[in-house]
Design goal:
With about 300 residues, the chain is of the alpha/beta class. The protein has helices spanning about 5-15, 20-25, 30-45, 60-85, 100-105, 105-110, 115-120, 130-135, 205-215, 230-240, 250, 285-300, and strands at about 50, 55-60, 90-100, 120-125, 145-150, 160-175, 195-200, 225, 245-250, 260, 270-280. α1 packs across α3 (about 30-45), α1 crosses α4 (about 60-85) and α2 (about 20-25) crosses α3.
């Protein structure tokens, strides 16, 4: 099925003639708009834009699709309005478990989005780490949907009755104190960081195991000066000059002054973000919420592959 959000983006791109202009109009990043249009091309099997370094030109297929998309979106708006009018008193309760950084940087953007009010969802939120959240999805639990992450193939297990849907990826980045003399976004080999002090996860957690294996494969044996599973604390300690740290993109949305982000080609790692849904709770409204979440995560600068 074609995502209506992508059709709306298509209308703006063809009207404004630019991914960047459409992104500014819709509140996305230009890369998020580009990702949406690439997804729409894959779903429809047609090329929608001729891309060059300086411009995007709609193809004839895009022009035809735009004409139909305008009518489809109008019909969807009419459908939502009619449904809201008929069922004003019948909002659907959604008991949501969500991990802290997604609750901090993505969920508030959804709640401020005008599309959220149209969903008619009465939200109940529990913020916790994935291992605890999954417990709430089990038989007799107190959650309908859990938003969780995995690093590699580690750690998490859930009942076979649960439906899993990929939302996006939250890439890890290497951050260092600005006072160490590295230029932000500089490309640095991992072995150049081996003798530096590092802020690392507490050992034993699934994330820590995956990170330790990755570092070892890069011949990177960090001199650990601190242990922290709180990314905000790690960033503040890095900004104060204590050590380097590995931090996901979502946490970097509130990064303090005094840190630089490096490009270390050997260190490619991401938190894979999933929605876990109880099958009988997977209604049309809940699916629209999950789709809105995926688009908001992508437009936040995380989420793409």
């Amino acid at each position: 099925m074609v995502n209506p959000v992508h059709l709306k983006t298509l209308l703006e791109v063809t009207r404004l003639g630019s991914f960047a202009a459409a992104a500014a109009r819709l509140g996305y990043t230009a890369s998020a708009v580009s990702q949406q249009m690439s997804t729409l091309e894959r779903e429809t099997g047609v090329v929608l834009f001729q891309r060059s370094a300086k411009s995007v030109v709609p193809t004839e297929a895009a022009v035809v699709m735009t004409r139909h998309a305008a009518k489809v979106l109008t019909d969807i708006e009419a459908l939502m309005a009619a449904a809201a009018k008929t069922h004003d008193a019948a909002s659907e309760e959604l008991r949501l478990g969500i991990f802290p950084s997604l609750a901090t940087y993505v969920l508030p953007r959804i709640l401020r989005n005008p599309a959220w009010k149209d969903l008619g969802i009465d939200l109940r939120v529990s913020v916790a780490e994935p291992a605890l959240t999954i417990q709430g999805l089990r038989t007799g639990g107190d959650l309908d949907v859990a938003l969780v992450f995995q690093v590699g193939q580690s750690g998490l297990a859930w009942p076979h009755t649960i439906n899993r849907q990929w939302i996006g990826d939250d890439d890890f980045r290497v951050v260092l104190p600005a006072g160490w003399g590295f230029r932000s976004d500089a490309k640095v080999a991992a072995d150049h960081l081996s003798e530096l002090p590092w802020i690392m996860h507490h050992p034993g957690s699934p994330d820590a195991v995956v990170i330790e294996r990755l570092f070892s494969s890069c011949n990177l044996h960090p001199r650990v000066v601190a242990r922290s599973d709180d990314f905000h604390a790690s960033l503040e300690m890095a900004a104060a000059g204590l050590g380097a740290a590995l931090v996901p993109e979502l946490a970097l949305r509130n990064r303090p002054a005094g840190v630089v982000v490096l490009d270390v080609p050997e260190i490619r790692l991401a938190r894979n973000v999933f929605a876990l849904l109880i099958n009988e709770k997977k209604t049309a409204r809940v699916q629209l919420f999950v789709d809105l979440l995926a688009d908001t995560l992508a437009s936040s600068g995380a989420g793409g592959k």
